[in-house]
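Write out this protein's structure.
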Amino acid sequence: MRVIALLLSLIAAGLTSACATVTTGTDQSVIVETTPQGAACQFSRGGATVATVNPTPGSIILPKSKYDVMMVCQKNGFENASAVLSSTFQGATLGNVILGGLIGIAIDASSGAANKYPDNIKVRLMPVAFRDEEDREAFFAIVKADILKDAEQELAKALSECQNERQPNNSRPDPQHCDAARAKVEEARDSRIKEMDSKLKGTRIDPNAPPIQRS
């Protein structure tokens, strides 16, 4: 009787522990958009292609994994654009710790259901040449605004996580830790702006180049 009861317990634990796998699945849909449209984007992980979009806009199905995905977008007349899609741990699996215990975590981690990529990817491609200085400056202003907006969201997220952290003695977070989080985001923001400014100054001016897309 004890053996039968133990087997039934293990079966029940295995079924329950699959909760996050069932509710979130092992694949994820990701929408891909580029400015301008009509680019070809390739997604790879560990050197192997896992998805493509050609042309944009479009959507892909990504197998979930704890590993990040590299994206490269190409279009004639524009510089290649690359980005990393970071894999993050899903909160849904935390509930699975209660439902399925360590077995649940093992199943979800191996299946990829415990991780998630961004749902929507937007990429702005930089022209290889600009019609005139005015277009080049306008493009830089657009990109700078994008960087500032992204940094503002990253900073809000970093500060929220920092302020919600608890020390081992359940005391409030160290203010210096939050200051360090802020400084890290601001440093990355300034570095991206400086890098983009440098790239744009190195681009060509060609009166035959098409006007930039300002939206």
